[in-house]
Design brief:
Distance between the termini: 143 Å
Shape: elongated
Low-confidence stretches: 117-144, 278-360, 410-438, 819-827, 878-893, 994-1005, 1241-1250
Structural class: alpha+beta
Number of helices: 34
Number of strands: 56
């Protein structure tokens, strides 16, 4: 049980005190009324004696009584009605609530810290998470820490309001005070009338109530004298007369009202009455105000209402409530001024009720009394008790003792007889069930058994517990023998209490007595009131002995359906028992608190029900018992709503909704409707207040995305808008980085190669991955879209209506000065910020869904998006039995809302965790996230780009012509339009020469993308040369090839203007899907400080399929002279293979032209052996071409700048494609620049300290020749034949090394065992490679291919051979020719045989730059055969170098000669 103000040793004596009746004359009552008190109320604070009292027991032993208290009350002649008692108890409990502002009473039980008794709203509600902070200190003791004053008030009122019964005498009147006033005409006559009235009430059979202890009731005569108004001498004389008549022990002169009431304000006198009169201040007394005034008709109801008085007016001096005026049920009959002797009592009661209505707290009690008067009243009570009451009790005990002894025929007193009774043969006690139901048995008043009971009760009242126990025990046996069960139960009950209260604990507490008594009262006598008293007393006794388990079982046993209030209070006390055990049973505590809360609710005690549920919630919260939590929260919400604690109700229902609920869909729907209903009531209380926060649906704030700009236009026929950025695109970190690099490239180019320090990449879409540390910039008149991620955790659909963004805007004027006015509401300033409202937004059960909400800024300034505002509701009848939400098809925009409430949710986004400095690493700090706080800036130009006839599929290398349209859709002109891409080789706008050369008629007929010229057949297979510069095609050496200015006719694009430009595309060389990013950059004509430029993105997705594979090799021609007598010709071998697998419907490829482009070389003619003009390639066919390449003329090279390229076209058809014009040259230059980019890094890695000699030797083997193969493909598509055209490029760098048109995929090398070795020489060898050396000197042997010699005539055959030496380098070379070399390999000997050189065997020569020299040699053969003459070894060194290099001739063709015999 909970901790009580009184201990059990104080509680029981205070609950059973001697009862004294008071009967006042009208004048006497009027004197008391001057203090706003009845006479009984006047005495109440002074009824506890301040000193010990002595009396003698029947054995003449001195007995000491401590802290004796008496109860003085008015005489009521009607017994209290059960309904009235129930009403009184209910009011007592409801009026006693936890005090405001107390320190939290925290109880530590196991792992729980439970807040048991604090202010309900502040600390006990489950969502008040910081209740521990309100602790002053933890209680040292873990027992009895919680107080329940409402239970104590209930218990006290219950014990006081026990109706007097015949089987016990504890609350029967022992004495009666007869009070008259000294101001009356005949006071002595008045005393006589009062005495007769008392005698009539006690002995007349008409009055069965109140009950009197013994027939000879003590009468005590009190003369009340008003000091301020009355005649003191007269009072004294009357008092003398009284003493003579009634004796000095039987009367008293009480002087009161020493001052007048108007003096009360001058001096502050303590008011000891307020704690009794106002402690139980019960509301609603007005409802009973007028009823009792109609005396005749309301006789029964009056007595019902007023009959409690005699039970309730026992004055308590322990500070516990006893306010008779708090409710008409507790009014005092003694306050009636019209005390007619022959008038019925209910008349007095009725008039007193009307007259003495509960005074408001402003009334001062005892206004006419001084401190001296207080002392006089205290002295009067002492005198009455010492001289009147106690002697009367002592005498009565002796008389009863004597009667009992004489009746039993015993010679000794009861004391000496008890031993005999106890030690003698006991009558075995029968079990309750065996006994007959004789609860209706009644003893006559003079029965000896009742006399024993009377004596026991008197001893109990004066705290003589030993004698009381003996008497109760004796009476119990007699009653059981007679099977008078009601009497037996009463004796058992009081015997148990007496045994407990005996000094020194002479015997243990007989709990089984109480159990038997409770069972008898409840089951046999059907008297729950007496059973309840037993339980209350026994539980308190068990608690004092720390027997909490037994106490809890006892309390729970008495819970029943007949009284919800009693059951609730007992269950609550049982819960406290569980938690006060040595090992606290916290869950049992919580469970029984729930049960108590339920019963409180049924009893109409809403506040107590709410408190019980809140306290239980502390145990269930956060333990995963979600269904229990839901039930408790639901009940808390309902009770709070009933008590008009609407905020608490909303919070409780909110908790049910926001936790991951395991409830069924129907239950969740019920919770939601309840929440909406409560919420609506809350919002109606303050319709103009701020919008409250709604708990549903969940918003994932960090997933909020913000997009600046218009939505992308959909594709219109062949017209396709640039993809740009949209909220439909997923964030890709790699792609984001690519766009950033592209933007940096173009910004660096615009700013002369340097990125400005204040540059930040443009961000049109902000999300959790973007850098949101700066305020984003938005342009006025361009929409801002905020994507909010909602999630519905419930199994019922939610319908949001009138959904829009909540914002705050601080406008600025054009000078940048802030306007202080802040606009928050959407409707207030639509001319500042337009707001889009979504009329209906349905989120199905357990669905995640995003809403895109737009704002339209019309003014510059600072915008802050605060959150979303909407009406939350459910869809009527959309939830089916199994919880599936409304069908998708039913969302017609006409949902019937069952109920909706307006509210808001804030978007609060936590920034990224900071982790750069030491302080940030050691603490948890977060940076700002400003994606919802854009700054609106002045107007900027806005570009839209459309692509017309843009393909999605191409063959590798295919050329296609499309168109691009640029539109300025803003009100500002734009300039500086550029496009940047990582793949510049993919597209071109055409070079500067495009406009100069019109397309040929045939080209336009065939819709060719190329510029063509019709040729004559004579020029077939011979090269047609032309010249072009890279600068003409936007490819400069210094500029970045990725950044391409868009060649607009006018550099400024005016508002509303649009321009269409041709755009040539070339399919990438690798097959597959290619994503090609274009970034368009443009600026405003007017330079703005905040936004310097804008960008537009486009991602083109092209799927390429295989077409041709081109491989080319260049090698030196063996003929050292050409037609013009100059050496250095080259042969170019080109292999073309059709690797198309016909998936694109390609029938065949035609090679229409092969062109070369180089600064130093050009193709001269085709040397194909095959005379087939038409070079067709079917599927998987391969064609081989051979071309002769010659150096460009020296004068041509000299006159041109080194940047000029010579283009030579060899035509296989009758139409020349001008390879030096757009778009052929464009793509050639773009592919060339991308090739150079790949090669460049390797060039830088080589050491610059390489010797000049090596560099010169390397240069000999380099060739700078590029081959362009132009083709047509015949495609059948939808039974129509299309002609596609394209080009492939091969870049030839080195003589003899094969080059491909696209990079070969390198097979990953196989795993090899790991080798550990020590590098012997880490220095990079400066020796050139064998391939480079072989190209330094070119050799050629001239000799007859076959020779017939008559060996029979002449045995030796001499053959003249000319060795031509050609210096390929630009430097002087010393050459050594050694003829002594023999072919050593056995294979060569077998095949070719052996021969001998005659004459000089070694020659030393010096060859100047590109000089040719011939040596005349002789070879000697001895017999016929085939011989290889290529045996001379040639050594060479640069003239100014020491090292000699051997030139390898292994790459040369074998020089075979045939010797025949004639």
């Amino acid at each position: 049980m909970a901790q009580c103000v009184q201990s059990v040793h104080e509680l029981i004596p205070d609950s059973f005190v001697p009862c004294v009746a008071a009967l006042c004359s009208d004048d006497a009552e009027r004197l008391a009324r001057r203090n706003h008190l009845s006479f009984a109320e006047l005495l109440r604070p002074f009824t506890r004696l301040t000193s010990e009292v002595h009396m003698r027991d029947p054995n003449n032993q001195l007995h000491i009584i401590k802290n004796l208290k008496i109860a003085v009350s008015n005489i009521i002649t009607q017994p209290p009605q059960p309904g009235a008692i129930r009403k009184l108890l209910s009011d007592v409990v409801s009026s006693c609530q936890p005090a405001d502002g107390l320190v939290a009473n925290v109880f530590t039980a196991g792992d729980y810290d439970l807040n048991i008794s604090d202010r309900l709203i502040k600390a006990s509600v489950p969502w008040y998470s910081n209740w521990k902070d309100t602790l002053k200190e933890m209680k040292e003791s873990s027992l009895n820490t919680a107080t329940t004053p409402w239970f104590e008030s209930y218990r006290e009122t219950f014990l006081q309001s026990m109706p007097a019964s015949d089987h016990e005498f504890l609350n029967h009147y022992l004495a009666c005070m007869l009070v008259a006033s000294s101001s009356e005409a005949e006071p002595m006559e008045q005393f006589g009338k009062l005495s007769q009235e008392q005698h009539r009430i006690q002995h007349n059979n008409d009055y069965s109530y109140p009950k009197w202890f013994i027939p000879n009731t003590l009468k005590y005569y009190v003369l009340l004298h008003d000091v301020s108004a009355g005649d003191e001498q007269r009072a004294e004389s009357i008092y003398e007369e009284m003493k003579q008549k009634y004796g000095t022990q039987g009367c008293y002169l009480l002087k009161i009202n020493s001052r007048t009431s108007n003096q009360a304000s001058d001096e502050q006198i303590p008011d000891p009455w307020s704690q009794y009169l106002q402690k139980n201040s019960i509301q609603n007394q007005e409802s009973y105000e007028d009823g009792p005034c109609t005396i005749s008709s309301n006789k029964n109801s009056d007595s019902n209402l007023l009959s409690l008085d005699g039970l309730d007016n026992e004055v308590k001096a322990d500070g516990l409530p006893n306010n008779f005026r708090a409710h008409p049920l507790q009014l005092d009959a003694s306050s009636d001024p019209s005390n007619n002797i022959d008038g019925p009592d209910h008349v007095k009661s009725a008039s007193s009720l009307h007259e003495t209505k509960k005074a408001n707290p402003g009334i001062i009690h005892g206004a006419c009394l001084t401190l001296t008067d207080h002392d006089r009243i205290r002295q009067f009570v002492q005198e009455f008790t010492f001289r009147g009451l106690l002697p009367h009790i002592e005498k009565t005990i002796r008389q009863l003792n004597d009667q009992l002894i004489s009746r039993k025929g015993l010679s000794r007193s009861l004391f000496s007889a008890t031993k005999k009774w106890f030690s003698g043969s006991k009558v075995p006690e029968k079990s309750i069930n065996e006994l007959k139901n004789t609860s209706g048995l009644l003893y006559p008043p003079e029965a000896p058994e009742l006399q024993i009971r009377k004596m026991a009760d008197l001893c109990f009242l004066v705290q003589h517990y030993d004698l009381a126990y003996s008497c109760y025990h004796t009476a119990k046996k007699d009653f059981l023998n007679d099977q008078a069960m009601l009497y037996a139960a009463g004796a058992l009950e009081m015997a148990a209490v007496s045994a407990f209260l005996q000094q020194g604990a002479a015997r243990p507490y007989p709990a089984h007595y109480m159990d038997t008594a409770i069972q008898t009262y409840r089951d046999i006598c059907k008297n729950m009131v007496l059973a309840e008293r037993c339980v209350l007393l026994s539980a308190e006794i068990l608690k004092s002995q720390s027997k909490y388990s037994e106490a809890a079982a006892l309390l729970i046993r008495l819970t029943s359906e007949d009284s919800d209030l009693r059951s609730a209070l007992l269950l609550e006390q049982a819960a406290h028992c569980f938690i006060n055990m040595k090992s606290p049973m916290v869950r049992k505590y919580a469970f029984h608190m729930i049960l108590a809360g339920h019963r409180f609710s049924k009893a109409g005690q809403k506040k107590h029900a709410l408190r019980c549920y809140c306290q239980a919630m502390q145990v269930y919260k956060g333990k995963g018992w979600s269904l229990a939590e839901d039930h408790i929260n639901f009940t808390i919400g309902r009770q709070s709503y009933t008590l008009r604690q609407l905020d608490n109700a909303v919070s409780a229902f909110r908790h049910i909704l926001i936790n991951e609920s395991k409830q069924s869909a129907a239950q969740q729907g019920s919770f939601l409707r309840e929440y909406l209903y409560v919420y609506k009531n809350v919002s109606q209380l303050s319709p103009d207040g701020p919008l409250p926060q709604l708990p549903l649906p969940y918003i994932n704030s960090s997933a909020t995305r913000v997009f600046f700009g218009h939505d992308r236009r959909p594709a219109d026929g062949e017209k396709q808008a640039a993809t740009h950025i949209s909220l439909d695109q997923e964030y890709d970190n790699e792609s984001s980085q690519q766009w950033r690099e592209l933007e940096e490239q173009v910004v660096a180019l615009v700013n002369k190669g340097v990125i400005p320090p204040n540059f930040h990449p443009t961000q049109y879409c902000l999300n959790s991955f973007s850098d949101n540390s700066r305020f984003p910039l938005a342009v006025v008149e361009e929409p801002i879209t905020v994507e909010v991620a909602f999630r519905n955790p419930l199994k019922v659909p939610l319908l949001l209506t009138n959904l829009s963004l909540l914002w705050k805007f601080q406008p600025k004027d054009s000078s940048g000065k802030n306007d202080e006015e802040v606009k928050e509401l959407v409707t207030s300033e639509p001319e500042m910020i337009g707001t889009e409202v979504i009329s209906e937004f349905l989120i199905n059960s357990e669905e995640s869904k995003v809403a895109r909400l737009k704002l339209f800024p019309h003014h510059i300034g600072e915008l802050h998006v605060l959150g979303v505002v909407y009406n939350l509701g459910t869809v009527q009848g959309s939830t089916t039995v199994d919880g599936i939400g409304a069908l998708p098809g039913c969302h017609t925009g006409k949902h019937s809302l069952s109920m909706s409430v307006r509210g808001r949710q804030d978007l609060e986004i936590q920034g990224p965790r900071l982790n750069s400095t030491k302080e940030e690493k050691t603490s948890i700090t977060y940076g700002p996230d400003r994606r919802l706080d854009p700054i609106i800036v002045e107007e900027m130009p806005l570009l839209e780009v459309f692509f017309i006839h843009f393909p999605t599929g191409l063959l590798c290398g295919e050329i296609r012509k499309a168109y691009v349209e640029f539109v300025n859709v803003s009100k500002c002109p734009l300039t500086g339009l550029k496009v940047v891409s990582k793949r510049p080789e993919f597209f071109t706008f055409g070079g500067n020469t495009t406009a100069l050369t019109p397309l040929s008629p045939s080209a336009s007929e065939n819709c060719s993308a190329y510029k063509t010229v019709v040729t004559e057949s004579a020029s077939v297979r011979t090269a047609l040369a032309s010249v072009a510069s890279a600068a003409d095609f936007g490819i400069g050496t210094g500029s970045q090839p990725e950044v391409i200015p868009v060649p607009l006719p006018d550099p400024v694009l005016l508002p509303g203007a649009s321009v269409q430009l041709p755009l040539w595309l070339r399919g990438p060389d690798e097959e597959g899907v290619h994503e090609i990013n274009f970034l368009f950059y443009y600026e405003s004509v007017k330079k703005l400080p905040k936004i310097r430029h804008r960008i537009l993105r486009h991602t083109a997705v092209i799927c390429t399929s295989r077409s041709l594979n081109v491989r080319a090799t260049v090698c030196r021609s063996n003929s050292l002279e050409d037609e013009e007598g100059r050496g250095g010709n080259m042969l170019v071998f080109v292999d073309v293979e059709n690797i198309n697998t016909s998936e694109a419907g390609v029938k065949e490829f035609h090679i229409v032209q092969v062109s070369s482009s180089s600064k130093h070389w050009k193709l001269q003619k085709s040397v194909n052996l095959s005379e087939n003009k038409d070079a067709k390639l079917g599927s998987r066919e391969k064609g081989k071409f051979c071309f002769k390449a010659i150096r460009c003329k020296e004068e041509e090279v000299a006159t041109r700048s080194s940047e000029k390229y010579t283009f030579a076209d060899i035509i296989f058809g009758n139409e020349q494609i001008v390879s030096s014009a757009s778009p052929c040259a464009d793509f050639f230059y773009r592919s060339l620049s991308s090739e150079l980019k790949k090669v460049q890094p390797s060039a830088h890695t080589e050491k610059q300290s390489t010797e000049d000699a090596v560099r010169l030797i390397q240069k000999c083997s380099e060739v700078d020749l590029n081959v362009v193969i132009l083709w047509k493909a015949y495609v059948v598509e939808d039974s129509k034949q299309l002609i596609l055209e394209g080009q492939h490029h091969v870049v030839l760098h080195t003589v003899g090394k094969e080059a491909c048109s696209y990079p070969q995929k390198q097979e990953p090398p196989e795993m090899e065992p790991l080798k550990f070795f020590r590098p012997e020489n880490t220095a990079v060898s400066s020796r050139p490679s064998a391939e480079q050396l072989s190209s330094l000197i070119k050799t050629s042997l001239h000799y007859p291919e076959s020779l017939s010699h008559p060996f029979h005539q002449k045995s030796l055959c001499l053959v003249p051979v000319t060795l031509l030496l050609s210096n390929c380098s630009k430097a002087d070379v010393d050459v050594i020719v050694d003829l002594r070399h023999k072919a050593t390999s056995p294979e060569s000997l077998e095949v070719h045989g052996s021969f001998t050189w005659l004459g000089q065997t070694q020659y030393k020569l010096r060859l100047k730059s590109e000089e040719m020299h011939s040596l005349q040699l002789k070879a000697c053969f001895v017999h016929t055969g085939v011989y290889n003459l290529g045996t001379p070894r040639v050594f060479a060194k640069l003239s100014d170098q020491v090292t000699v290099f051997e030139t390898s001739q292994q790459n040369s063709m074998p020089a075979l000669i045939i010797i025949n015999n004639v």
